[in-house]
Write a structure and sequence with these properties.
The protein is α/β, with parallel strands linked by helices. The protein has helices at 30-33, 65-78, 95-107, 124-132, 158-176, 193-207, 223-236, 248-261, 275-283, 298-310, 339-342, and strands at residues 53-58, 84-88, 112-115, 137-140, 152-155, 183-187, 215-218, 242-245, 267-272, 288-293, 326-328, 333-334. It has 2 domains: 51-155 and 297-313, Response regulator (Rossmann fold), CATH 3.40.50.2300; 158-293 and 332-345, Response regulator (Rossmann fold, 3-Layer(aba) Sandwich). The chain is built from 11 helices and 12 strands. Residues 55-313 form the Periplasmic binding protein domain.
Length: 349
């Protein structure tokens, strides 16, 4: 079984959502006293060709499905626009090599830069250099600590992933009337803040149903570790009611271990929204019943945002004239009821 590389990224959401604006009525006559809702910014048809822009792109090497989909989505979205020249540098997992690659994009004077750093802390200074040079940086997923280093951040909601998984597990077990359920949690890399956020969200959501996690173990975001950890957990627990696996890439190994053991008395929830996980859900014959998103489609949205910023446009569905400074994508729950809608957005593990 092949081993996937460690995923050191911040780990569901698909497209950028906007909230409706409500105005309060303060007088007795609604028609006379209620202020009119402000009109959306006059940005025109944002997808219509505009000023030609060059968008630089840098990301880690595609050593697993999620990162591979990030690069693929970014390039595909840029290709949809005749006014965008997409200038991607060689992906790498070496910090110094990525810094040098971003240096080359700054020297090329790109109009905007979409940057998924290997490590936000270690690439903070090069992102700041780009920003200081007048190149707006769209910081993708792994955030830079210095807000002056980026124009806009877009990424997933790790805590929200845990909350979504916890509500699915909690509600189903409550509905089934299970008392004191055995709930297992298969993490990614336990020391990462993203993993800790996911675990906290999961625990907080389960608590609202009166449940707690029975046991948790880290699987390092790889197929091999996912297989080994799951095998150990299955041996240690003769009765299981539910399992949440943080990552659909490592979930390939998780599912293999479950099938090999022939265990079917529990249900499994995944994380990220891979295509193979969705196909398992779609089959209706798998213990995998749901997955919560941390979608690499965020790279597509990042390119769209970079284009708007470089062209001086805002988001036409918003009242404000500028692209927001921070966008956190929702973690959505995919089940057999909506899997057909989400499958086209899935990535291959």
């Amino acid at each position: 079984m092949s081993k996937l590389g460690r995923r050191g990224f911040l780990f569901s959401g698909a497209v950028v959502g906007t909230a409706a604006l409500a105005t309060a009525c303060t007088g007795n006559d609604p028609e006379a006293s209620a202020p009119a809702a402000p009109a959306a910014a006059a940005t025109g048809a944002n997808d219509e060709p505009g000023a030609k822009v060059v968008i630089g792109f840098s990301a880690p090497a595609a050593d697993h499905g999620w990162i591979a989909a990030i690069a693929k989505n970014a390039e595909a979205t840029a290709g949809q626009y005749s006014d965008v020249e997409f200038k991607a540098v060689e992906p790498t997992n070496d910090i110094n090599t990525q810094i040098a690659a971003v240096e080359s994009l700054i020297a090329a004077k790109v109009n905007a830069l979409v940057l998924l750093p290997n490590d936000g802390q270690q690439l903070n200074q090069i992102a700041r250099k780009a920003s200081d040079a007048g190149i707006p940086v769209v910081n993708l997923d792994r955030i830079f600590p210095d807000k002056l280093s980026y124009r806009t951040w877009i990424g997933g909601d790790n805590y929200g992933m845990g909350v979504a998984a916890g509500h699915y597990v909690g509600a189903k077990l409550k509905e089934k009337g299970v008392a004191k359920p055995v709930i297992l949690e298969i993490q990614g890399i336990a020391t990462l803040p993203l993993t800790q956020d996911r675990s906290k969200g999961f625990a907080d959501a389960l608590k609202t149903y009166g449940f707690t996690v029975t046991a948790q173990q880290a699987a390092q975001f790889t197929v091999q570790s996912g297989n080994e950890v799951t095998g150990n957990l299955l041996q240690a627990h003769k009765k299981i009611d539910a399992i949440w696996n943080h990552d659909d890439d490592q979930g390939v190994g998780v599912l293999a271990a479950i099938k090999e053991a022939g265990r079917t008395e529990f249900f499994l929830v995944g994380g990220a929204g891979s295509a193979n996980a969705m196909r398992e859900i779609q089959s209706g014959s798998s213990v995998l019943e749901a997955t919560v998103t941390y979608s690499p489609t965020m790279a597509s949205s990042a390119v769209k945002l970079a284009r708007l910023i470089a062209q001086g446009k805002g988001m036409s569905d918003l009242v404000e004239h500028q692209v927001p400074q921070s966008i956190t994508l929702a973690s959505e729950t995919i089940t057999k009821d909506n899997v057909d809608t989400y499958l086209p957005l899935g990535f291959e593990s």
